[in-house]
Amino acid sequence: MVSHGYGEEALKAKAAWFRTLSPVERLRVLDAMYDLVVTLNPRLRGGGDARPATASVRVLELPTG
């Protein structure tokens, strides 16, 4: 039986299909997904509030134990 329902596709099957694609084909799929997401939510394209990182970086670590 042939099915076109997303619910019937296993995640492993999707990953196996994606692995069969060439790098160029993978980029085309990702580009198509990006276009779809931005079409559905145009505010994602903005990014106007991005700021460059400061000159210093503070690394925080939780104590072990």
Give a description of the structure.
- The protein has two helices and no strands.
- It has helices at 11-19, 23-40.
- The mean pLDDT is 83.
- The chain is extended and about 50 Å long.
- With 65 residues, it is mainly α.
- The longest helix is centred in the middle third of the chain and has 18 residues, at 23-40.
- Helices cover 42% and strands 0% of the residues.
- The chain has a domain at 8-44.
Using the CA coordinates, give the radius of gyration: 20 Å
Morphology:
extended
Name the beta content range: under 5%
Q: Report helical residue fraction.
A: 40-55%
Class inferred from helices and paired strands: mainly alpha
Mean pLDDT: 83
Largest sheet: none
Low-confidence stretches: none
Q: What is the helix tally?
A: 2
What is the strand tally?
Answer: 0
Distance between the termini: 55 Å
Order of helices and strands: HH
In brief, what are we looking at here?
This protein has helices spanning 11-19, 23-40.
Outline the fold blueprint.
Elements (H helix, E strand, L loop, with lengths): L10 H9 L3 H18 L25
Relevant terms:
65 residues; single chain; 42% helix; mainly alpha
